[in-house]
């Protein structure tokens, strides 16, 4: 079984795929060693570790070089967050997908947020064309079409489902609807979308077991893990620079354990 086939098979509401999103080779290896069946990158975490903000600020080439390192670090399938595709037109999105496949990743998240002078959501037909180009460029890559209606504050179930249908018709493999954690909406989405549903989680969200009962096939932690890691760094620095103590380091994994993990 290829990694692409394996990754696709992991999307199952009876046993949801849990993705503890990584942002570099080290975090990917840590997540894999903890038992991950697949590794997903977070665009925010990748951008931050390279010193730029999230939101189409990173270059395609920088993302692909970084992605190849993540893929090489683990023995499980890797899916990449490619933001809105690193390009203004479908041909550019296709080029990104070819690069992702060449880097060894077997999936992508492709969002429909439009940034720049006219921030908002892309026109449905425009995004469908981009997804179709992505599918043609990388036939075996799992395309997780991210719909940002709820992230943008539009409590619009009908509009979300219309986008989901259009994106699936264009070649998407699954649908990702971040910004939704209430059971009624998740149930409605899962029932109406004829493809694996991905939900973004964090503190206060339903558990994986609860989401499985609602029909969710994929559960992502997104940028939350990177946020937590960088928060520890800030707390340690503030404590050292003010109190002159180091208690924020309590509970950290040891040098030997981490170094051994990186020396596989």
From TrEMBL:
Pfam families: PEP_mutase. GO terms for molecular function: catalytic activity. InterPro entries: ICL/PEPM, Pyrv/PenolPyrv_kinase-like_dom, Pyrv_kinase-like_dom_sf. Coiled coil: none annotated. This is Isocitrate lyase/phosphoenolpyruvate mutase family protein. Transmembrane segments: none annotated.
